[in-house]
Amino acid sequence: MTILITNGTVVSAQGSTKADVLVDGETIAAVIAPGDTSLGADLARSADRVIDAAGKLVVPGGIDGHTHMEMPFGGTVASDTFETGTRAAAWGGTTTIIDFAVQKQGERVQDCLADWHRKAGGNCAIDYGFHQVIGGVDSDSLKAMDELVDEGVTTFKLFMAYPGVFLSSDGQILQAMQQAAGNGSMIMMHAENGSAIDVLVAQALAEGKTDPKYHSLTRPWETEAEAVNRAVMLARMTGSPLYIVHMSAKQAVEVLQKHRDEGWNVFGETCPQYLYLSVEEHLAKAGFEGAKWVCSTPLRERAERHQDELWRYLRTNDLSVISTDHCPFCFKEQKEMGVGDFSKIPNGIGGVEHRMDLIYQGVVEGQITLERWVELCSTTPARMFGLYGRKGDIRPGFDADIVIYDPAGRTEIGVGKTHHMNMDHSAWEGFVIDGHVDTVLSRGKVIIDDNRYLGSKGDGVFLKRGLSQYLI
Ligand code: URP
Ligand code: ZN
Ligand code: ZN
Predict the structure, then answer these.
(1) CATH architecture of the domain covering 2-59+390-409+431-453
(2) Which of 23, 348, 389, 469 could form a disulfide with 400 if both were Cys (CB 3.0 to 4.6 A apart)?
(3) Candidates 98, 245, 294, 347: which one to mutate for ligand 1, based on the most atoms within 8 Å of Cβ?
């Protein structure tokens, strides 16, 4: 099957240019400049299908490097399966996810990874890879890290939060970083001072402060900035690169920036929720509704201008990746577990379907350029997580993961609108985007076209990833 995408504007991290794209089977065969007839004067006649992309943007499929499908967490399980979550991702122009396999103290890392393979295998609409959470750092899990690297799981997440569940001590973190420095993998860090937070949470509850907004007020920016600094200092002792996930406080990114300016190989990720949502407008809504926006790190106050500063850090590249941290829970029965006690609200927001649109709105509003949109949502994640050469760009030989995006379109987000995630509410209800995902190709197969889903479960395959291109 050959597909010719004609008359569109091909956008890469480097620039935008008018070009046709020839897809042959699962990969991109050629990117053809106007007037170039070296492949034949009338390719349109010989192609099996021609897609006219006049007026449209032709961009590499989105790579969401941070999702949690069907993850047991907070006393319940994230509500999207690999089937529902990856299908929703496809609707929104994301063609690759990297999900977190989870290991806890006492469990064998290899068994946990096998469990994630079982959940995802044969169920995904788009390609997928795994990071591995190491919740119990010991000699076995350290050895397992080397084994996993050979199996294409080249990134390991550690937690400085959630004492008694996932938290690693500084010594354990140091050991895991040493192991990563030895095998070329990369540590991803959930940077929040979990012990301090637990004290603040207990004190708030003892004072009768039980509403969802206290989730943020008991995780002040200092708990994030302190943990970022500690994590980077530990990484500096080992020479291991470090990737800080889901950053929300401007002061925490300022700490990261300082270390980057000193030449250290440390990277920051943020998520759409931290760019658009706030304590005042969302988490502090009357009654229990704010539970919809409980996630960690927490939403921050708009009055303190975190959101504007994060956009600025995206421009300076001190934040270099946007992922969703898609961790969906239904309001009924799941978020409601925390009625009367905010600390029992499962932490997480669903958004895998909306990242490409939400960040495109940043282009419309002048926060970032078109090229930076592609770089933050596809190219850098591909380079960061060992997928470049196959994903993250529109170039000959790359997988034909392509989104045809209509900049004159419109997308209304919300339940009953563009929502395909397995959630009974949307954290993004009412958001309207000046753009629209028209067509999505995943390895050459058209899976979204004209507001229809044409894929099937099992289309997506496991991606054995290489090492990050950002290692020194
Ligand atoms: O609130 C969040 N972020 N839930 C998912 C788990 C994590 O820490 O990424
Ligand atoms: Zn986390
Ligand atoms: Zn997460």
Answers:
(1) Roll (2.30)
(2) 23
(3) 347
